[in-house]
Design goal:
Blueprint lengths: L3 H9 L4 H16 L5 E6 L2 E6 L4 H11 L5 H9 L1 H15 L4 E2 L2 E2 L2 H12 L17 H5 L5 H7 L6 H10 L3 H8 L9 H24 L1
Antiparallel strand pairs: 1-2, 3-4
Length: 215
């Protein structure tokens, strides 16, 4: 058995203690929400947390997905819920495919395509390691104070219309994402993503009206 920091260094080839700490903090959030299975052993004046054998793949996939989806609860839901996983694949397809970089981070296009394919099919996220399209994980580039989604949102004012839609969507502003999506002139290439946004916006509005009826 290995500790979480040891496993992170082995999985991502990280030597820097600072870089390892950024990922370790995120990994601990998956330990707290029980996505990761661990064993705690108490030593003199401290406690060491070890991953249960076979959890290395779960840790890798969780950290990779968290580079795009910041909320640990959402990442866990991608593991557990087919609908959430399909929506994640649609989002990643729109963000990463046909790009050589995003927010200045170099991408491997073939790995990005494989990542989307794995999320769209029945790949077992608990046992099969997802392809990593990033030359450097966004968490390491941005540190613990921001993430890829926040960086996209910050760049929205200088990006093309689709990027602005993506920035609003990943920041959770579905109303704004839907509004911007409706302004895109040629929606043929991005129709699945635009349809997803419109569907979620209608569901949100329907839920809001339902709540109003109970008030």
């Amino acid at each position: 058995m290995k500790s979480i920091p040891e496993t992170i260094r082995d999985l991502f080839g990280i030597d820097s203690a600072e870089e390892s700490t950024v990922l370790k903090d995120k990994a601990n959030s998956f330990r707290r929400n029980h996505l990761l299975k661990v064993i705690e052993k108490h030593r003199v004046q401290r406690k060491i947390v070890y991953l249960v054998d076979g959890q290395e793949v779960v840790l890798f996939n969780a950290l990779l997905l968290s580079s795009i989806f910041h909320d640990p609860k959402h990442v866990k839901k991608i593991f557990e819920d087919r609908k959430t996983r399909n929506e994640a694949a649609t989002t990643i397809r729109s963000i990463l495919l046909e790009r050589s970089n995003v927010c200045g981070i170099a991408l491997t296009s073939a790995a990005a395509q494989e990542l989307v394919a794995c999320l769209e099919n029945e790949t077992d996220l608990y046992s099969v390691k997802l392809p990593n399209p990033f030359e450097i994980l966004p968490q390491i580039v941005f540190g613990k104070h921001t993430n890829l989604l926040n960086a996209l949102f910050a760049q929205a004012s200088v990006l093309d219309p689709l990027d602005s839609v993506l920035a609003a969507y990943v920041s959770g502003d579905i109303d704004k994402a839907c509004y911007l999506a409706n302004k895109i002139e040629n929606q043929v290439m991005v129709k699945p993503f635009v349809d997803l946004i419109r569907k979620q916006n209608k569901e949100r509005q329907r839920f809001s009206k339902l709540l109003e009826n109970f008030l």
